[in-house]
Amino acid sequence: MSMRVLPVGDRALLVEVASGDEAQALHAELLRRRAEGSLTVGEIVPAARTVLLDGLADPARLASELTATELPPAPPRAREVIDLPVRYDGPDLADVAAHWGVPEQEVARIHAATEFRVAFCGFAPGFGYLTGLPERYDVPRRATPRTAVPDGAVALAGRYTGVYPRSSPGGWQLIGTTDAVLWDHARVPAALLSPGTRVRFVPVGHS
After folding, report:
1. Hey, which end of the chain has fewer CB within 10 Å, N or C?
2. Is the pLDDT of residue 178 over 80?
3. Cα separation of 9 and 27, whole Å?
């Protein structure tokens, strides 16, 4: 695994890798090291091709260790799969179908037949960036973002699927709606989705 380690302030490092799979493998290894006590760090934040480590006592020493270490591959996928009920009724369903060159019903079939994995989380508490669709189904963001996307909206942008955990502005293509609660302060953990979680969308109602 090739990586570039960049200092961020006095107590943090940003580790850049070549792919999402490598970022997931690095994230898993850093979590393992923290759990066994060989890594003392405040926060470990994965993204598409980076992992941020904050709250380090000696960032320079860790940077040297990381660049000299061959990290293991990502662990096997978790066995548990979270099923999210979805109505394929989004206002952008026709645009996505046109971009894919298929009927609207086929968008629902393709999406629901795919097993997704949470690559990383961000944007809003409870929002997971889900990968799984082949590259040919990438879609552009909307030219004009919406000022308000409703909570529970199932959306596509680039290679990712996401579910809006709360109402917010957004430029993703909306293809459906779910009643699943993505973020609940009374739940432990509060986020339904976390990096590595396997996810399936199960059609309900009429698409």
Report:
1. N
2. yes
3. 21
Gap between the Cα atoms of 127 and 124, Å rounded? 5
Q: Which of 186, 183, 161, 180 is nearest to 172 (CA)?
A: 161
Rounded mean pLDDT of 144-168? 94
Nearest residue to 91 (alpha-carbon basis) of 109, 110, 103, 104? 104
Dump pLDDT digits (tens) for 65-93: 888 877 766 655 555 789 999 999 999 99
| CA separation for the pair 175, 160 (Å, rounded) | 13
Instruction: Provide the 10 A C-beta neighbour count for residue 127.
Output: 22
CA dist., res. 33 & res. 44, Å (int): 11
For position 170, what pLDDT does the model report? Answer: 93
pTM: 0.70
The rounded distance, in Å, linking the Cα atoms of 1 and 22 is 7
